[in-house]
Specification:
Elements: H1 15-28, E1 32-37, E2 42-45, H2 47-53, H3 57-60, H4 74-87, E3 98-103, E4 109-120, E5 126-135, H5 137-151
Antiparallel strand pairs: 1-2, 1-5, 3-4, 4-5
Length: about 150
């Protein structure tokens, strides 16, 4: 594929192209893409989310994000979620990749890395949060094994 030179003469995406890009990002990424409304109810759940967490879209849509949050971490999660709903900002730096435990449908413990962004309506009011999540459980477990090996355990 030839290199593409994007300069000031290259037009921005049209509204239709941008919409198509958004649909592709929301549905076709192998990572989980999840949108939850102001109340924390799941309104979008892509195939990546189904693969990672074990719930198909029919099982996840309309349910609380609690289905993937370990019970011991729910209060901290909802405190941060409420903060974003009130302010439109995360309590974390915008470029920070967050790492947290999660739980799958079968009860398996997962290690997840994710980024989040508030979603606003036409008037600028926050209507929910979109997150892109990646299962890094294998990587996390391998790092733990290596650390134990270095310590001679």
């Amino acid at each position: 594929m030839p290199a593409v030179n994007l300069d000031a003469r290259t037009p921005a995406l049209s509204r239709h192209e941008l919409q198509r890009l958004g649909e592709t990002l929301a549905n076709a990424l192998p990572d989980a893409v999840v949108f939850a409304d102001r109340e924390g109810l799941i309104r979008h759940w892509n195939e990546g989310a189904a693969r990672i967490f074990g719930y198909d879209a029919g099982e996840a849509l309309g349910r609380s994000l609690d289905i993937i949050i370990p019970e011991r971490l729910r209060q901290r999660h909802w405190d941060g979620y409420d903060h974003m709903m009130r302010t439109g900002r995360s309590q974390h730096d915008a470029d920070e990749l967050l790492s947290v435990p999660a739980v799958a449908k079968d009860g398996a413990k997962l290690s997840i890395q994710f980024t989040v962004a508030p979603v606003a309506d036409d008037e600028g009011g926050i209507v929910g949060v979109v997150a892109v999540l990646r299962d890094v459980t294998e990587t996390f477990e391998e790092m733990k094994r290596l650390r134990r090996a270095q310590r001679g355990e």
